[in-house]
Design a protein that fits this description.
315 residues; mainly alpha; elongated
């Protein structure tokens, strides 16, 4: 009788080959959209550079005392009036010179990071939340609800962003970080609403959404478990890029004297003060402008990297 202890199969050459000799088939676990995006981001040099810059800025904003021991509000008109930069003294109060009140420009750069990032982060969080909710409701329910929300969105969208923010800020006698956040968020939610609405309209046509409805899933469950996770990708991209724009908007309002004001330390406030001394002390205007440009560029680069990673057509 033939030996039945080992199973044999016919190889490609026609000879019998034991099953043990056949290489096992390995099944790689399928990655989700977010897993593929993270894998792409880690290989993207723009993401690595921008994320590193943003991380450094966050550390500076949270722990400014680690980077300078100087008091950004203390001036010495006798010894430091419009003092020139001493670039060889890295990290000291003399590094970037002094302003018209004898205050260290370097110290004010460090402490001004906090106000700019707080404004931009809070505005982005508010407009993403408000715009995401309104856009999701309009896109999912449609009909009269969509018409009403879209009409209100179009009204706000027709107001020039900076001009409208100036008008809103004029209503406050004291302008702080939170009044600037309110003014920017009051008009900034419309873009997120439009993006979320369009994304939800596309996602709600998917088969898994129809299957969830057929199985009796409630509206809240469908929105939170099926619609929201699959519609958030474009919103995250727009929010990341807009964050850099909000930093620039805050600096613009402060430069015009309608945003943050002393004693709050801000890059926009210092740029405004430096403009008055540009003929005799260019460094007062130069260094805050460079810091502002680097920060805005870092967030725009991050947003572009995220967009490329989340958009399958760009891979």
């Amino acid at each position: 009788m033939p030996d039945m202890t080992k199973t044999e199969v016919v190889s490609t050459e026609g000879a019998l080959a034991p099953v043990d000799a056949i290489a096992p088939v390995t099944h790689e676990k399928a990655r989700s959209l977010w897993g593929d995006a993270w894998a792409d981001l880690r290989r993207n040099p723009y993401f690595v550079v921008s994320a590193a810059l943003i991380l450094v800025l966050l550390v500076i904003a949270v722990f400014p005392g680690w980077f300078t021991s100087a008091d950004p509000t203390k001036g010495d008109l006798v010894h430091h009036f419009l003092g020139k930069p001493e670039l060889s003294k890295v990290g000291t109060p003399d590094w970037f010179g002094y302003d018209g009140q004898g205050r260290s420009v370097y110290a004010r750069l460090i402490y001004g990071t906090r106000a700019s990032l707080i404004v931009a982060t809070c505005v982005t969080a508010i407009v993403t939340l408000v715009g995401g909710i309104t856009g999701m409701i309009a896109g999912y329910f449609g009909g009269l609800t969509d018409t009403l929300i879209s009409g209100i969105t179009n009204i706000f969208f027709g107001i020039p962003f900076l001009l409208g923010s100036m008008v809103v800020l004029q209503a406050f006698t004291k302008r702080t970080v939170w009044t600037v956040v309110f003014a920017l968020a009051f008009l900034g939610w419309t873009q997120i609403t439009r993006v979320m609405r369009g994304s939800v309209i596309t996602v709600k046509q998917a088969d898994y959404v129809h299957a969830a409805k057929a199985l009796g899933a409630g509206t809240t469950r469908i929105l939170l478990r099926h619609i929201l996770p699959n519609a958030m990708a474009p919103v995250i991209v727009v929010s990341t890029i807009a964050l850099g724009g909000y930093i620039a908007a805050e600096a613009t309002l402060s430069y015009l004297g309608l945003g943050l004001a002393a004693p709050t330390i801000s890059w926009g406030v210092d740029i405004s003060a430096g403009a008055a001394q540009i003929r005799v002390a260019q460094h007062i205007l130069l260094y805050p402008s460079i810091m502002l440009s680097i920060t805005v560029l870092a967030f725009i680069m991050l947003g572009e990297a995220v967009r490329n990673a989340l958009d399958p057509k760009l891979r």
